[in-house]
Amino acid sequence: MSGEVKMLDFERKSVVLVTCPKGFSPYLSDEMSRMGFKIRNELHAGVETKASLNECMRLNLWVRSGHRVLYQLKKFKAETPDQMYDQVKEMVWEKIITPDGYLTITSSVITETINDSRFANVKVKDAIVDRIREKFGRRPSSGPDMSGVIVFLYWRDDECIIYLDTSGVPLSRRGYRKLPHKAPLQETLAASLIKAAEWYGRGNFISPMCGSGTLAIEAALIALNGAPGLMREDFAFKKLPGYNEEYWDNLCIEAEDRERKKIDGRIIATDLDPEAVEAARKNARAAGVEHHIEFEVCDFRETPIPEGRGVVMMNPEYGERMGSRTKLEKIYSAIGDYFKNKCQGYKGYVFTGNMELAKFIGLKTTRRMMFYNAKIECRLLEYEIFKGSNKKRY
Q1: Residue limits of the THUMP domain (predicted)?
Q2: pLDDT value at residue 7
Q3: What percent of the chain has pLDDT over 70?
Q4: Are residues 154 and 219 in the same domain?
Q5: Which of 165, 197, 232 marks a domain boundary?
Q6: Each residue of 206-215: b (16+ CB within 10 Å) or e?
Q7: Helices 81-89 and 117-136, interaxial angle, to 10°?
Q8: 127 lies in the same domain as 159
Q9: HSE of 75 in the Cβ direction (CA atoms, 13 Å)?
């Protein structure tokens, strides 16, 4: 059999879900609103809007706090795998993948009829390739490596939604982290923490205990209005029939033209470990922002605080390794002393997954914002450090 491969309509609007880790939705929603998208629904781990595939390209280019941009193809009811197979097979897949293409299925499945999401993935894959085989006499290859068309299945109870994943590799992988060093913050988490601190590039941004530099680098990208998607090449939308390379190139050129040349304030990143500072410097170089960040090897207590106002943000260890508790208590206590003695006029922020340790900071929080670092429930603690007072505020 033979058939003509048709093109997807990149101008057709549909429901689009931009996924994010739990707790990030308010910051992602704000980003998308600033980009001109009307928010349909703010979910626990994502934000819904209506957009075309062309607009999905813009979301992939500019979103800082999201992980994936999912374009809805079909929503339906199914109680069994066979019912789901029939619904998926009815879809016009010949517009989406060629017989010579490559297909990857990913999913989020919670339904009584399936114990293993991999079985659901196989049923979706079978439905798609069976239809393509019937149309063309041959079928696309499939597997896990995300090098072609990526289809995402959402299945809760009897509700199924089929999406095109236009991102592929999560948007958190900007492409600049060449040397991760120890337990680095994910880029999307770092960007969301900075947004939660309401720092948009005015004033100073100080990052003691900088590790591999993710906070400082994301701060520089925000201050410069640098599109985070400019640093990577591998987007799943490029594999779709109808993808217009010229349209994407123009989006990138426009993003480059909108990038600022200077930062209104100073960004300082320090760490006691010379290897961490070297890793941070190399990562900043890969991101194109090295010359906008001042790096220094020193104890966090020696981190310089310029005159004026700004944000001091730290991500101290909060693990419970054997024998580390007493040392960490002293570090958290020293953070409180550093804030009240060196950072007057600034806002201090500590990101931690251990609220018992946070008590040793000894200062009264003005806000406590919940985030998840992987599966660990964490808090971003805000401290307003007043000028003219060295007293601890309880």
Answers
A1: 55-166
A2: 74
A3: 95
A4: no
A5: 165
A6: bbbbbbbbbb
A7: 30
A8: yes
A9: 8
Q: Is residue 173 part of a domain?
A: no
How many domains, in total, are found in the chain? Answer: 2
Mean pLDDT of the chain: 93
Q: Are residues 270 and 301 in the same domain?
A: yes
The residue range of the domain holding 60 is 14-165
Taken in order 50, 56, 60, 61, is the CA torsion positive or negative?
Answer: negative
Residues 323 and 375 in one domain: yes
Cβ burial 302-311 (10 Å sphere, 16+ → b, else e): ebebeeeebb
- Around Cβ 252, how many Cβ atoms within 10 Å? 14
In a shared domain, residues 66 and 193: no
User: pLDDT by residue (tens digit) across 380-391?
Assistant: 999 999 875 444
Rounded alpha-carbon distances, angstroms, from residue 125 to 8, 80, 86, 109, 131: 19, 16, 12, 15, 10
Please report whether residue 89 resides in a domain. yes
Q: What is the pLDDT of residues 99-135, one digit of tens each?
A: 999 999 999 998 888 888 889 999 999 999 999 999 9
